[in-house]
Design a protein that fits this description.
By secondary structure, the protein is mostly helical. It contains nine helices and seven strands. The strands form three sheets. The chain has a three-stranded parallel sheet. It comes from Cellulomonas dongxiuzhuiae. This is HAD family phosphatase.
Length: 219
């Protein structure tokens, strides 16, 4: 969700900076970028190390409340994301939202969008990303083989989760430039993906779409 479909990373970063500074600490953009895609437990631990004298639950509540309010004011779609979701939904492709964000943020977003068949949030699994459990859970709930799934990820933690699950994977270089393993497709924007391109990835092709002027090219 965050960074791949909607540009909420600035919201998370602002919430983190505000929280750390309220406790007398310093939190830089570099700190925030390094934490993109991390589970809430990992994120809370890093914020505690930066001086936030709150429990993990209190940190989660503060961050989630801030981001939820920002998203409620208007969904900041990443370029091409909403169009890709609508095209897949209209083609009858089952869709799962698999996110490290907690249900309190993910569920309202999913309800508003109205296109997802399944939502797996970071607090509804025992082992969140980078463990493959979130993606395996999504495939199970959809009733499909994970090998028939295409996962889109924009963080190192999420990429590791998706690859380990056995899904076909597309790395989206948005806020972080990823270094995916062999067999992972790449793009800089979901504007590059139409149904035909997604079908090619699902069929086993590995594509590099970062240079959209040259079209999709095998790697």
């Amino acid at each position: 969700m965050d960074g791949t479909l909607i540009d909420t990373e600035p919201y998370w970063m602002a919430a983190e900076i505000e929280l750390v500074e309220a406790h007398g600490g310093v939190w830089t953009r570099q700190d925030a970028v390094a934490m993109i895609g991390s589970s809430m437990d990992v994120s809370a631990g890093l914020l505690q190390a930066a001086g936030v004298a709150l429990s993990v639950a209190e940190i989660a509540d503060a961050l989630n409340s801030s981001v939820r309010a920002a998203v409620a004011a208007g969904i900041p779609w990443q370029a091409g994301a909403h169009e890709a979701l609508r095209a897949l939904h209209e083609a009858g492709v089952p869709l799962a939202l698999v996110t490290s964000s907690f249900e309190v943020v993910a569920a309202p977003f999913a309800r508003t969008v109205g296109l997802f068949d399944v939502v797996v949030s970071g607090d509804t699994v025992a082992r969140p990303k980078p463990h493959p459990e979130p993606y395996l859970t999504a495939a199970r709930l959809l009733g499909v083989d994970i090998a028939d799934c295409v996962a889109f990820e924009d963080s190192r933690s999420g990429l590791a989760s998706a690859v380990a699950s056995g899904a076909r994977v597309v790395a989206v270089d948005s806020h972080v430039v990823l270094d995916p393993p062999a067999g992972v497709s790449r793009t800089s924007t979901l504007e590059s993906f139409d149904l035909e391109t997604i079908a090619r990835v699902a069929a086993g092709e590995t594509l590099d779409l970062r240079d959209r002027q040259g079209g999709a090219r095998p790697v």
